Known about the structure:
By secondary structure, the protein is α/β, with parallel strands linked by helices. It has helices spanning 16-24, 50-57, 71-79, 95-98, 121-127, 163-187, 214-217, 225-234, 301-308, and strands at residues 5-10, 28-33, 38-40, 45-47, 62-63, 84-88, 105-109, 132-139, 149-156, 241-245, 248-259, 269-271, 277-280, 284-293, 299-300.
Amino acid sequence: MKPLRIVFMGTPEFAVPSLDVLYKAGYNIVGVVTAPDKPAGRGMKLSESAVKKYALEKKIRILQPEKLKDPDFIKELQSLKADVQVVVAFRMLPELVWNMPPLGTINLHGSLLPQYRGAAPINWAIINGEKETGVTTFKLQHEIDTGDILLQEKIEIAEDETAGSLHDKMMNTGADLLLKTINALEKGTLKEVPQNSPFTIHPVPPHHAPKIFTETCEIHWNKDVNEIYNLIRGLSPYPAAFTFLKGKKLKIFSAEKELTQVEEKPGHVLTDHKTYLKFAAKDGFISVKDVQLEGKKRMSIDDFLRGWRGVMGKTDNGF
């Protein structure tokens, strides 16, 4: 039996381990579809995606369409005669593309579908205080993230987990799950399970994972400490939760929570100007540990307070 002809579609670093594991397993990667090069940095030089860099290193054919319905791209994709397409962290595909291979298109998603369908499953799982999440391989269909489930793997979310650390866990676990999926597909042992089936890890009704906007990231100090703490973790390191300090935006990348009775108003700032800076919330304090003030670099709270000592005089809110 000939090895499967696979077209891989992906762009960021998250997708590279999945491409790597398929390549090292000996599968015939006949093409990689990734984002066009984009200007980046001070010099605005063209920057290649992480997936493109890997494909160049392995001498895999690369397609970089601006538009996925472009006739020239469709013709080139058809010429690759893929048995199956694999999608990891890529754009939404038109039916003309995902329905092209005889074995369909398989997507790796960063949640236990049907939970957390959408653009930001890693962030929202932490923001909502989940204790576990996972990865899912599924067949693409018309509605986003609704296709039949192929395989799933659970991942524990630690108490101090951030979106960044969970991303890295998921990146590697997802690659392993994808390899198992393609192996089973090749052997003909893969079973498709509808997302509303009782056999899925998380039955409906599902939570959703919409795109993160700026308003999502602003901290509201009148909320519970745990809710604020989860927001900070779920948005770290990017795009980062923020508040305002003396009229300037302060991004918070890590913090500790203090559950205690609070007399101060929500948002009230307490500091010794040396080692701690904390904000009052509904049922305690959030003590920030790693921050970035607007116009400054990211730094520990010790370095932040050392740099601002004497510059930011004491005010009636403690700063």
